[in-house]
Amino acid sequence: MRNSLKILTCSFLLTSSLVYPCTGISLKTKDGSLVQGRTIEYGEGNLNGKIVISPKGREFNSITPDGKTNGLKWKAKYGFVGATVVVDQFIGEGINEKGLNAGLFYFPHYGSLAKYQTKDAKTSLADMELVNWILSNFETVDQVKKEIKKIKIVNIAHDEKGDPLPTAHWRVGDAKGNNIVIEITNNGEVNIYDNKVGVISNSPDYPWHVKNLNNYINLHTGNAEPFEYNGQKIFSFGAGTGALGLPGDVTPPSRFVRAFFYVNSVGVQPNTKLAVSKTFHILNNFDIPIEVEFPEKHRAHIPADVMSATQWTAVSDLTNREFYYKTMYNSQIRKIDLKNIDFSNVKLQVLPMDEKNEENIQEIVVK
Q1: Rounded to an integer, what distance in angstroms lies between the CA atom of residue 325 and that of residue 153?
Q2: In the chain, what percentage of residues exceed pLDDT 70?
Q3: CB of 294 within 8 A of CB of 44?
Q4: What phi, psi does 18 have (nearest 5°)?
Q5: Counting CB atoms within 10 angstroms of each CB, which of 24, 67, 107, 219 has the fewest?
Q6: b/e for 309-329, b at 16 or more Cβ within 10 A?
Q7: What is the pLDDT of residue 293?
Q8: How many angstroms separate the Cα of 277 from the Cα of each of 15, 51, 266, 322?
Q9: What is the SS3 assignment for 113-168?
Q10: Helix (H) / strand (E) containing 212
């Protein structure tokens, strides 16, 4: 596929008038292990998600905004497994052989990258290829923090006027339990935040979302305590009244609050196997039916090949180096164990996420 076509495809994705929401959560275990999960949504078309097996020693050359592969060059120190968005070289979420996990999340109105300069081509990296760069080069969050400021991350998608289109912000976690959010604002200012709350969604910026949690200080698990007022007994109709007021809509601020509530409700897990299971269960609450993203008058334009706005969900066990996923077509959870892959000898592979675009339904035969 020619580079110009790749950039055109990316532009179609990012110029969408609809939202491109994602929700990410992190769960820790008693021994400090980290499990990270996320959903990815898009309502205007099929993101054509695929699974990429990327070997150690693979040579990369980034796209630049002028449509050429004359950007940053590097050779992969580590192999990784990831899920793609739009085209095969854009990794939306992945984990490498050292247990480093990274993913991109849509960040409209707030992300603002440095203006591309042709003279800086050799140190420029396309925003949609940042996950590749992170996964193929580093073992730890500290390494990413140190090296990311040495390169220029540029936006490869522009509108008809030549202005940059919305970019992403990124979440990175390592097998030591470290977890950060990277946001680039104000024409290239790199901001790195420790993700203490274990949640990421979309705009506004991460500090705004954390401040917004103060508006929901009253929420708690279980039931609100009954009381009596002027002789009238007031009590809970059923379970969960401590969560009354928890926002249920699909906007980024509401999803951030809801994800924070669920993550802190389940707390620290005894082991990563249970943490992976809990992560999928929590993320089920963020599946978005595609119809929700379309006003009634635009229902005729709903893509026929998109079953859900939530096109895939992925979970990474950073300690055991395992990558799990399910899709809008098939809710069967699948696992890729990176420990079983020889990244020094495996060839680059791009695999379909689903063998068939249908649910894997098991029939119970009654005799």
Answers
A1: 28
A2: 93
A3: no
A4: -90, 165
A5: 67
A6: bbbbbbbbbbbbbbbbbbbbb
A7: 85
A8: 35, 21, 11, 13
A9: CCCCCHHHHHHEEEHHHHHHHHHHHCCCHHHHHHHHHHCEEECCCECCCCCECCEE
A10: helix 206-212
Query: Residue with structure tokens 């939530």?
Result: 310
The torsion defined by the Cα of 116, 122, 123 and 128, in degrees rounded to 10, comes to 70
* Count of helices and strands (H, E) across the chain: 6, 20
d(CA 198, CA 178): 10
- Per residue in 147-185, pLDDT (tens digit) is 999 999 999 877 666 667 778 999 999 999 999 999 999
Residue 196 — left, alpha, or beta (φ > 0 → left; ψ -120 to 50 → alpha)? alpha
- Provide the CA 128 distance to its chain's centre, in angstroms: 13
With H, G, I as helix, E, B as strand and everything else as coil, classify residue 366.
Answer: coil
User: What tokens does 153 get?
Assistant: 């991350």
312: nearest Cα among 13, 18, 86: 86
Radius of gyration of the chain (CA): 21
Question: What pLDDT is recorded for position 294?
Answer: 86
Extract the tokens encoding 146. Answer: 């140190």
> What value does the mean pLDDT of the chain take?
92
The confidence score (pLDDT) of residue 166 equals 72
Q: How far apart are CA 366 and CA 361, in angstroms?
A: 16
Q: Tokens representing 241?
A: 């009244």
- Do 124 and 64 contact (CB within 8 A), yes or no? yes
Cα–Cα distance measured from residue 271 to residue 28, given in angstroms and rounded to the nearest whole number: 9
**Residue 302 near residue 291 (C-beta atoms within 8 A):** yes
Preceding amide of 204 cis, omega within 30:
yes
Crossing angle of helices 252-266 and 272-283, in 10° steps, is 150
- Give the residue from 173, 172, 193 showing the smallest Cα distance to 33: 173
d(CA 86, CA 58): 21
3-state secondary structure of 51: strand
Confidence tier at 17 by pLDDT (50, 70, 90): very low
